Here is the input.
Amino acid sequence: MAFEYAPAPESRAIVDIAPSYGLFIDGEFAEAADGKVFKTVSPSTEEVLSEVAQAGAEDVDRAVRAARKAFEKWSALPGSERAKYLFRIARIIQERSRELAVLETLDNGKPIKETRDADLPLVAAHFFYYAGWADKLDHAGFGPNPRPLGVAGQVIPWNFPLLMLAWKIAPALATGNTVVLKPAETTPLSALFFADICRQAGLPKGVVNILPGYGDAGAALVAHPDVNKVAFTGSTAVGKEIARTVAGTRKKLTLELGGKGANIVFDDAPIDQAVEGIVTGIFFNQGQVCCAGSRLLVQESVHDELLDSLKRRLSTLRLGDPLDKNTDIGAINSAEQLARITALADQGEAEGAERWSPACELPSSGYWFAPTLFTNVTQAHTIARDEIFGPVLSVLTFRTPDEAVAKANNTPYGLSAGIWTEKGSRILAVANKLRAGVIWSNTFNKFDPTSPFGGYKESGFGREGGRHGLEAYLDV
Amino acid sequence: MSTSPKFSASLEQGGATTPPAHALADVTASDSTLRRFLHGLPGVDAVGLEARAASLGTRSIKTTAKAYAIDLAISMVDLTTLEGADTPGKVRALGAKAVHPDPTDRTTPATAAVCVYPDMVAVAKEAVAGSGVKVASVATAFPAGRAPLTVKLADVREAVAAGADEIDMVIDRGAFLAGRYLKVYDEIVAVKEACGTSARLKVIFETGELSTYDNIRRASWLGMLAGADFIKTSTGKVAVNATPANTLLMLEAVRDFRAATGVQVGVKPAGGIRTSKDAIKFLVLVNETAGEDWLDNHWFRFGASSLLNDLLMQRQKLATGRYSGPDYVTVD
Here is the structure.
C-alpha cells in the first residue's frame, strides 16, 4: 500500500459570500451608475461565486470626489490617530484571517497553504508596519513634517489580491492620503471584504473607496484630473499606457510591472536547498508572480545533477483542490491566463526547447496547468525573454560568474534575482552587478514589510515597502 | 586501504551518473583525499533545510492514511532498553512486548527489533525466538565510543556471537571533529568486518555532537562509504537527538548515495521521538525525500522506547473511537 495522505480541505463555511456586491464609495456599498454587474468565478471549479457591481467613469468620479472630501479631515489628523485606525485594521485582519484566506483561495485559485501561511500574515504585517510609521514621518528621512499628496488612485492585479491591496493602502493611509482602489476583475472579493473591515474599524467615510471593474475603470481612475498619485501593479504593457496618460500631469507615479527573474545556481550551492528555492521561485502561486525566478541559470558543471534533483522534486508536487492543505499547486487564475501560458509553452516547444512535466493528473473542471520545465533554453528563445506568468521554468546554463551576470542582466526586465552559493563573497560580488530591485541569496520569494520592493527598466520604478515605500505617498 | 565487500561489489556494477565509480573508490586512499571528497559535498543551508522539514510536517495524515502510518511506524520501532539497571527480566519483558505490542489486539504488528546492550543479547534472542523480531545491540563502547579499537571490536564480536542480528556502533566523534576522517572510516570498516555476514551494521553519528548540518552530511557519506547498512542519528543519550531536519538531511544522503552507487542504505532516527504525531511526520519525510523504497522496516527504523505506547494508544483509539489512556497499554 502506498502512503496516501488524507484530503484535508478547509471548510468553506467560515466565509459567507453574498450573492451580490456593490461598489464601496464614501463608506457605503452602492450600485454602479449604469447598473452594470459582472460575475466572479472560482478558477479551480469555474463556479460563480458572486455578482459584483462594475465601476464606470461616473463611479470613478464619485469615488474620487468622496476621497477628496475625506482627505481634508484625514490628512489633518495627528499621525498617532491615523495609526490607531491602521492598527485596528491590522488586528481585524488577523482575527478574520482564516475567513479571508479561504475567500482568497476560492476567488483566486491559489492553494490555502499560501493564502493562510504567506498572504494573510503579510497583509496584517504591512498594516502593522505602516501603522508604526504614521506618527514618525518627521523622522523618516524626508525632512520635517512631510505632507501627503492627496487622493491616491491605485490599480492592483489578481495574483495577490489582498496583499497588493495592503501594499498600496497601508502606506497611503499612514501618510495621510485617501484612496480609490480598483481590484482586478477576476479577484474583486477580498477587496470588498476589506471594505467591510474598514467599516468595522470605524474608518472615516471616503478614506478608502473600492471600485471593482475592468480596465476602463482603471483607465478612468488613472486619468481623473483630481487624482494626485497613481500606483499601479500589473503588466508592463498596461504600465506603459499609464505612464503615457500620466506624463505631463503633476501626478506622482509608481509602477510595479513584469519580470523575468534570474535564479542563478553556482556549482558550490547547497543543492538540496537550491532545489527547494527553485520550486519556491517559480511554482509559488503557480508562477503567477512578477518576481518569480522564471529563468534558472545553472552552472554547467552541476546542470545534470541539479536537473535530476529538480525533476525528482517536481514529481512530489501535489496539484489539485486549492482548499486542501496538502496542495502545492492550485489553479491558474483565469481562462485567459491559461491560454497565454499554454501559447507561450507551445512556442517554447516549437522553438526547440525540451519540455518536461511530471506525471500529473489535471482536474476536469477549472483552469489548470501542470508544472513545466524547459531545458536546452538559450537567450534567443522566446520563453527566456517573455514573461510567462505561469508555472513554467526555463533552464539555461553558464560557465563563469561573469557569464551568469551577463545573462541575468540581458533582459528588458529587472525586478528580482536569486543567487545560490555557499561562498559569501561571491554573493556580494554577484549581487552588486545584478540589475534587479530585489536579490535573494540562498532563498527566494521571501517578503517582508520592512524591505523595499520594486524594479529597474521595464519592471517599473518606485519602491513599495519599507521606509522607501513612504516616499511614494509624500510630497518630497 | 580496503573498502567493504558490499561497496566494492557495487562499484564493479558501475553506479549511476555522478560521480564516476572509480573516483569514489579513490576517495579513501588517504586522509586528504577523503577530506577533499567530504568537503566537496554540496553544502547545507540550515534555514532552507529546516523550512523544508517544517513544511513537510504539515501534511495531513488521517483515517486510513493514519491507520496505515501507525502500523508502519510500529513495525519500524527498535524497542530499546539501554540502562545500567537492565536485568534479564526486564529484557524478557521487552522481548515479549516486541513480539506482541498490544496483548489485547493480536493484529498489531510486531516491532522491528529489540535493542539491548551486548551482555543482554542472548536473553533477548531467546525472548523473541521464532517471531521474526530482530535483536540489535549497541556495541563499540556505547554511548561514548571512548575505548581502544580492540575493545570495540571485541564488544562487537561478543554481541554477534551471542546472536545479534544488528550492531549499532557509535563513531569516534573526537576523531571526526578533529578532521581525522580516515580513522573514523577505518573503524567503521573494521566493525563491519567484525559483524561478518550475519549482522547488519548501523552507524550512529551522534548528530547533536557533530553540531553542524555540513558535518552530518559528511558523516553520512563517510559511514556509507565505509559500508554502513544503516545510518543513525544519535544514541538518545545527549541533549539533541533525532530532529526532522537532521533526519531529512540523512534521507537526502542515502537517496544520493544510491543514485551514485546503486547501494541502498537505511536510516534510523533515534532519541526524542515520543508521539505518534512526531513519528508520522518522519514517515512523511521518508516518503517525500528518499521515497517509497525506504518505507519499510528493512530500510527505516525508529530508535525509541516511549514512542511505542503512544502508537498503541492511537491505534486503539482508531479501532474503538475512544482514547483509553496509559493503563490500557503495557509498561515495559
In short: Chain A has a mean pLDDT of 97. The CA atoms of residues 318 and 327 of chain A lie 5 Å apart. Chain A touches chain B through 27 residues (CB under 8 Å).
